[in-house]
Amino acid sequence: MKSSMQRLLAATCLTSGLCLSTAAWSQEAAKPEAKAETGAQDAKAGTSTVTVTARKKDRADTEVYDVSKNPDAKTGTVADALNKIPGVNVDPTGNVTLHGRNVVVYLNGRPSLMLSGDNRGVALKAMPSAYVSTIEVISNPGSRSSSDGAPIININTQRNMPPGMFGSVSARYSTPAGGFDTVFLGIAKGKLSLTVIGSYIDNRMTMRYGSQTTAFDGNGAVSQASISDGEGRSNYHGPFLSGNLQYDAGLNDVLAAAFNYNRGQSVYTNGSHAISTGPNGAVVNLFDQSGAGTYVSESAGLSGNYTHYGQKPDETLKIDASVAHTVSRGSSRGSNTYQVSAIPANTGTRLQGNDRHDDKTGTNLHAEYNTPVGDDQLTLGAEADVEDHTTGSHVFGPAADEASLAVNPLLTDDFRSHQVVSALYATYQREITPRWTVLAGIRGEAVRVSSDDLTYGTRGKVGYARLNPSLFATYVMSPTQKLRFSYTHHQQRPEPADLNPHVVYVSDSSVNAGNPALKPQENDAIEARYEFTGKTWSYDLQGFWRSDDRTIATVSQVIPDPQGLGNIVIRNTRVNWRGQTDAGVTGHISRQVTSKLMFNADATVSQTEMRNPQISGVRRGTHSDGSLSLNYTFPKGDRIFAMYKIAGRTFNSQGYTTGAGQASFSYSHKLTPKIDLDISVNDLFRQTRTVTVIDTPLLQSRFANTHQSPTIMIGLSRSFARFGPPAAPAK
Questions:
Q1: Is the CATH code 1.10.274.10 the one for domain 4-679+698-723?
Q2: Which residue of 7, 68, 246, 511 has the fewest C-beta atoms within 10 A of its own C-beta?
Q3: Which helix (H) or strand (E) element contains residue 81?
């Protein structure tokens, strides 16, 4: 007789991807969604089972990782799961990278506003990891994906709960402060199944930072310089709620609806000391700064899905629709107390303030039809994305007192944009010979952006259309060896805010200004990969080459301080530069050392070459990253997982950002058959320190940021289950 937990893990939840599982290191062939027939009877176990008609051929553009065997499966989060995938890193703010490249995170094959922008870090830490089926890594996305070309990480959830009810309650508390609690409930009765997740996060963090900035004149002489150092504290707290309702209309039709909601409030304080000097090195400004503020973000989303399974093996029609709204509000007040200032008005204490808002509504409609054509596979799809976005920033002061604060027109702007992206795509996968499989695709995409600067009364329109081809090939050398090849062409689209020409406040020392003439960046990528999969060990080696034309890059310039506070202020503008290339190799090895011990390692080395119009010649830089991990299972089921990750410098058009190392350790122990204890230590050596460097003929800047993040976490998980009799066969 299967245990209730085994039955649960065999068939869990969520068509729309709002309930997730742990990551494991074992890599599988791709297993896209399959036709599920509920109500079949397991003669030996007497339980309800799921009959699956699987895809006949693996997709050639995707690597899929099984995520069911990690020690923190009961109390872990999706962020924990992703950090165990080779080359994937989730930083303390929720930013996800693959070998140093920013990625797009999907849920069940579709983009989600819940996992974008400021929502991503909250959602990844809030959602439990116990119910993810697989995590797909697409390092070189093809024609089915949006044209921006960024790597995709797709989180697939399991489907079709067994009849009855399952629930779990878990709590993780960390030192020096913080933690989160999660409740999961799943109910299945007849043709209906419901899953609900609720979480509450309390995340506290201390950061230390320091900066050095030097500005030069046209002759290379120092015109001004500054040094500052400070400390900040933040406390983020708020609820997260999501749910999914699924209805099996029959053997061939499934309807699903999902919702998500989260609200978070961050309260922060900071203080710093700054000194600036003139051309001769004499002190011109010396002051202490202190500030405090709040930031509130609220998001909600609804989605619906219809899936029809055809009569042919793996014939499916999927229609998805979703709408999501995110709104955020922030307010901060600060003061500078001067000991020395070259500006006569800056004596004693001067006050300043900033209020900002951001509203975004996104609507998506997507349809995809997949059918076999003989032994081949044809996929046709269409989608439309509509995004309305309004942002605003109002800066006040400086002034001697709160009552005298007035709007600074140089740093006040309200901007609105409307973007529509329409796409049609087709892919065709064919087995040329028993060893060769080819997947070819084409995507046509049209973009229309209109903008309206509400402060200055200026409007703009941008529109363009592109065709993007892709080609993937797989060669089976033997039952244990494969070769994979791929080529893709994409565009990186400018964000609507990048087109806003007016100055937008970021901080007292940094502002942004857009560029209405900014064009899409053209990307070409080629990858070649060798894979070996044995009984007790596997490894792969991949080479890649990527080239960008009309590279979208940032230009930073020193401008006069719009607030008159005595800061060196840097204005950042996005422009098109000549080009950039990246080439390198990635390797990964996995070894089952004993029946209880698993070892994994991966590493990447690449070289970046950029042509910067501000600098003669070609600027080059070498990037490397890697990780080592050990997973040991004790005879009674306890587990230990230890990992060390290191990331090297990542290069950009003006400089680089240093990497950091991070060690983590976790231990899982079953206190009772239904209660699990999980202990983890993250950032064991406190190495989460990054330095961002700008090095151009007119500007040299260095900004260091150290996260004093919580290091020790203790979690408890309590599960309960009540299963009913097998469901009657669907009619």
A1: no
A2: 68
A3: helix 78-82
